[in-house]
Structure formats: C-alpha cells, structure tokens
Write a structure and sequence with these properties.
Radius of gyration: 17 Å
CATH superfamily: Vaccinia Virus protein VP39
Order of helices and strands: HEHEHEEHEHHEHHE
Number of strands: 7
Helix content: 25-40%
Largest sheet: 7 strands, mixed
Strand content: 15-25%
Strand order of the largest sheet: 3-2-1-4-5-7-6
Shape: globular
Distance between the termini: 35 Å
CATH class: Alpha Beta
C-alpha cells in the first residue's frame, strides 16, 4: 500500500461505509474491505483502473468527478476519500462541499505547492517546478488548481469545515516534528481529516 494510504486507513473505522473518489485501481478499498470489513464504493474514470477494481472485487462506478455527486443522497457514507485528486478538479471547493454533504467525514490529500522545494525552484529557475512528485510540464499537467496548506486551511474556515486531524509528510511519506511545526513551508503532501461544523 502507498504510504499515504496507510496513513488514511488509520482514520477509517471498521465496518464503516466508504466512498473513494478517484479510487484508481481500488487498492485502498480492497485493503479496507479485507482488513476492516468496510462497505466501499469507488468512483473512477479510467477504464484500465475500473477493470483492476473489478478484478480485485471492488465495487466501482464510472463517473467524472467534475460532474458532481448529485447521484448520492446526503449522509450516505461515513467517510468520503479524495486522495491526490483535488488539484485536478475544475471546482475543488464545490466537490469538498459535496463530499461533506454525502459523508459524515472527508479525507483529502494533495501536494502542497507552498513547500520550500517549489519556492526554491521558482526562485532559482523562474519556471514551474518539476519533481518526482510533480513530474509534468506546465502545458501537459493534469493539475489545474495547485494550493498550499495555508490555502486549504483558509478554505476550511470560509466553508465552516472542521479539521479533525492534519498531517504533512515529505515525498517519501515520512513526517517529522519540524514538518508539523512549519507545515506550509516544509510539508510536500498534506493529508486532512474533515467534517462539517454542526449547524453549518
């Protein structure tokens, strides 16, 4: 399992209902089904990934996330996941609102564009950063909405979203006390556990 997914699975209760948005090959849902008795559904648009989900016994629906989640009732799931997909959406703020409408909790992960490596790359080269974690050129990247930890924190305040937990890690998915102290500057990947504030 990818290290960031290992962190995510710790926040998911056994026997819960989980919706994984952009579930990829379904590896996380398969693990949760086998080890936590989770009832899961994945949404995916890539045909190859959909085939992998079906081979692995994962329930999957072919759906473009930019079309919204209106086909799901409110409070249908305990947890809705959005792992490394936020930055590729046309309206990420709308999808987060929808996540917290249909799920009691949400888990979101994204690359933190405010980390020091990105800043140094822009400063020294004057070009959009290229790295192992962000390997695409500006003209062919699937990422259309880069954000930072501070940006996401501000969105949560504006949308009355409660942050239950937050961690930041490096590109090897390892954390440290100094990343926790300066998450926006040192964290490369942000991982959030969210819920809607009561009365919102």
């Amino acid at each position: 399992m990818r290290p960031d997914l290992a962190i995510i699975q710790e926040w998911i209760k056994p026997g819960s209902r989980v919706l994984d948005l952009g579930c990829g090959d379904g590896r996380l849902l398969q693990y949760l089904q086998d080890n936590k008795d989770v009832r899961g559904i994945g949404l995916e648009i890539d045909p190859t990934n959909i085939e992998s989900c079906l081979r692995n016994g994962v329930n999957v629906i072919e759906q473009n996330l930019d079309s919204g989640l209106s086909n799901f009732r409110s409070d249908s799931f305990d947890t809705v996941l959005l792992a490394q997909t936020l930055q590729a959406l046309s309206k990420p703020d709308v999808l987060i609102d929808e996540m917290l409408r249909i799920g009691k909790n949400g888990i979101v992960t994204f690359p933190n564009f405010g980390n020091w490596k990105s800043r140094c790359y822009l400063w020294t080269k004057g070009r959009m950063p290229l790295s192992k974690f962000m390997p695409h050129q500006w003209y062919n990247t699937p990422n259309i909405h880069f954000c930072t930890v501070n940006d996401f924190d501000a969105l949560c305040v504006a949308r009355n979203i409660q942050i239950l937990a937050r961690t930041v890690v490096d590109s090897q998915h390892k954390g440290s006390w100094y990343m926790r102290a300066w998450p926006n500057f040192l964290g490369e990947i942000a991982i959030y556990h969210l819920t809607k504030n009561k009365g919102a």
